[in-house]
Amino acid sequence: MRDSIIGRLALIAAASASLAACATGGEPSVSTQGMPGALEPIHAAAFTKDEAVFWVSSNGCTDKEDLIPIVSLQGGAAVITLRRIDEDKCRQDLVEGVELKWSFEELGLPPGSPISVNNPYQLPRS
Q1: How many domains does the chain have?
Q2: Residue 39 lies in a domain
Q3: Pairing of strands 94-103, 77-84
Q4: Distance between CA atoms of 112 and 48, rounded to whole angstroms?
Q5: Where is the signal peptide (predicted)?
Q6: Would residue 12 count as lying in a domain?
Q7: Per the confidence metrics, is the pTM higher than 0.90?
Q8: Which of 6, 49, 51, 59 is the most buried (most CB within 10 A)?
Q9: If 0-12 CB within 10 Å is exposed, 13-18 middle and 19+ buried, where does residue 82 land?
């Protein structure tokens, strides 16, 4: 069932990325200059009332501490830019990547905040 959900989220993410690229020229909506680490392509993102969930690529060693979510405000909504600050040097190929979660409290956001993502979408490796 998890594979099915990830597959659907990847398809939605790919469609969203295509539409976003058409609307914005493929550039992030928030400037990423001066931010730490490297902009992390994501497979999918989902939000609950009080949690942000991301699926990212991994070679087997990616942990939550390897990425940093940078939250900025744009037009009254929170924009999350996920940045990789520590490279995954392992050699185990995790085709679906890994799921990483941050609570809204960790992100400094009130529950139910409107959120968008500033990262490019990338389909999981097959």
Answers
A1: 1
A2: yes
A3: unpaired
A4: 7
A5: 1-23
A6: yes
A7: no
A8: 6
A9: buried
How far is it, in rounded angstroms, from Cα 106 to Cα 25? 31
55 lies in a domain?
A: yes
Residue 43 counted as domain residue: yes
**Buried b or exposed e, range 29-56, using 16+ CB within 10 angstroms:** beebeebebeebbbbbbebeeeebebbb
Residue type, position 12, single letter: I
> In Å, how far are 5, 17, 55, 66 from 13, measured between CA atoms?
12, 6, 11, 22
Q: CB count, 10 Å around CB of 90?
A: 12
- What strands, in cross-sheet order, belong to the sheet with 42-47? 42-47, 51-58, 94-103
**C-alpha–C-alpha distance, residues 72 and 17, integer Å:** 20
CA distances from 123 to 25, 59, 103 (A): 19, 15, 25
pLDDT mean by block of 10 residues, the chain; 126 residues: 46 40 44 80 95 95 96 93 94 89 97 95 78
pLDDT of residue 57: 92
